[in-house]
Design a protein that fits this description.
The protein is α/β, with parallel strands linked by helices. It is built from 17 helices and 14 strands. It starts with a strand and ends with a helix.
Length: 405
């Protein structure tokens, strides 16, 4: 197929997002012309050229002031600012395909695509209704969320979208199975995961397993939220301290519950020495920190969200030759067991979590698991393989739409 003009609809500011960059970069490298439609909370320039795509940002309403402008730019499918931004961009560049990232703006993409006569591909990076449910289950929702972040309404919107998009990109087999159970034909689903490039293997030097005598370094890379199970790692640090087992948890990332975890660590007497919170760290620097650790942790609670998605951090750990300590959230547990690259513990169980850490405290075990994870990236879980699926999905979405007209 000839090169296509593609719009990728991203509901936050850009740069930056790892999946957006990888998908748009892969499409651009394949010869397609890619444009990212994004929010503009920071009042940046309306258009910017990046290596992976041209970014088109929402025009700010400066007379409203930053706070009100951000509120009025909220990524809701019924927001006329998003409808106008997407429609004008699609019309101006004469787009031939819209890729809608996640649920909030997928109806916007569908309505625009129908009006312009072009197909829409749904990049379902998250089980969005389950993501919202996490907020409610941990009592972190607000009054505003009853309207715009309501998991019951999100399920209805999701069903609406799934019946109207040309194809769906899922991130893992469990997500695909969920879609099939909802009635989406399997032939309309493609799995494009959150894997790293094989180039990462040549850049990463697995040095953590070589250190002896120092505290066991355990790293967590991700969002600081209750449903991610981060509190369990803080409790594990206190338990290991009581056992006189030297350990240092480096928890990388920001999030709405970061202060809660700091308070917990302070209360348990492990803040700063056994548990270090770095806050947000740019991704390249964060991956350097990961590469110097001994164990990569994924303590996510095994709920509907974690059971139907796959975190970038799993593959980041494996690429860095880190053994993985993961909860039994289904996708992570399956991959870790299949690859033989770590330990799986029962979600939320502090005793099982500590036991898994003690198993991985053995240098020989860590070395074996780290090598197995790295080999699995080389053979199966890499972006080069996912790129092939992505390119086929894009072509299929356009050709199938052409045939149906």
């Amino acid at each position: 197929m000839s090169p296509l003009r593609i719009v990728y609809l991203w509901d936050a500011d850009y740069p930056w997002d790892v999946r957006t960059e990888k998908i748009c970069g892969a499409l651009t490298s394949a010869g397609h012309e890619v444009h990212i439609v994004a929010r503009n909370s920071g009042w940046k320039g309306l258009e910017e050229g990046c290596p992976e795509a041209t970014v088109h940002r929402m025009a700010p309403w400066r007379y409203m002031g930053p706070r009100l402008d951000r509120l009025l730019g909220f990524p809701a499918f019924f927001n006329p600012r998003w409808l106008n931004l997407l429609s004008s961009t699609v019309r101006r560049i004469r787009a031939e395909l819209i890729i809608a990232r996640d649920l909030p703006l997928c109806p916007t993409a569908i309505w625009t695509g129908r009006r312009m006569g072009i197909p829409v591909l749904f990049d379902m990076a998250e089980n969005y209704p389950a993501l919202l449910q996490d907020t409610w289950d941990t009592d972190r929702h607000h009054m505003f969320d009853y309207l715009v972040r309501n998991p019951v309404l999100a399920k209805q919107v999701e069903r609406y979208c799934l019946s109207r998009v040309s194809r769906v990109l899922a991130v893992v087999e469990e997500s695909r199975n969920r879609l099939i159970a909802m009635g989406v034909p399997i032939e309309r689903i493609d799995i494009v995961s959150n894997t790293p490039s094989l180039h990462r293997l040549s850049q990463t030097i697995p040095c953590g397993i070589m250190r002896r005598g120092a505290p066991l370094e355990i790293v967590y890379l991700g969002v600081m939220e209750l449903a991610r199970g981060v509190g369990l790692l803080v409790e594990a640090a206190a338990r290991l301290k009581a056992l006189r087992h030297p350990v240092h948890f480096r928890l990388i990332g920001g999030g709405r519950d970061l202060d809660l975890f700091r308070q917990l660590a302070r209360r348990l007497g492990v803040l700063d020495r056994e548990v270090e919170f770095t806050g947000f760290v740019p991704r390249t620097q964060a991956l350097d920190v990961v590469a110097r650790a001994d164990i990569g942790a994924i303590p996510h609670l095994a709920n509907d969200l974690a059971n139907t998605t796959i975190p970038n951090k799993l593959f980041d750990y494996m690429a860095a030759a880190l053994p993985v300590l993961t909860s039994d959230a289904i996708p992570c547990a399956r991959i870790v067991k299949e690859a033989g690259c770590g330990q799986v513990f029962h979600s939320g169980n502090i005793d099982a979590c500590v036991a898994g850490i003690l198993v991985l405290s053995d240098v020989a075990v860590r070395s074996r698991c780290g090598a197995a994870g790295r080999q699995a990236i080389r053979e199966r879980y890499n972006w080069e393989g996912d790129t092939k699926v992505l390119l086929r999905a894009v072509v299929s979405a356009v050709t199938q739409h052409s045939k149906s007209r």
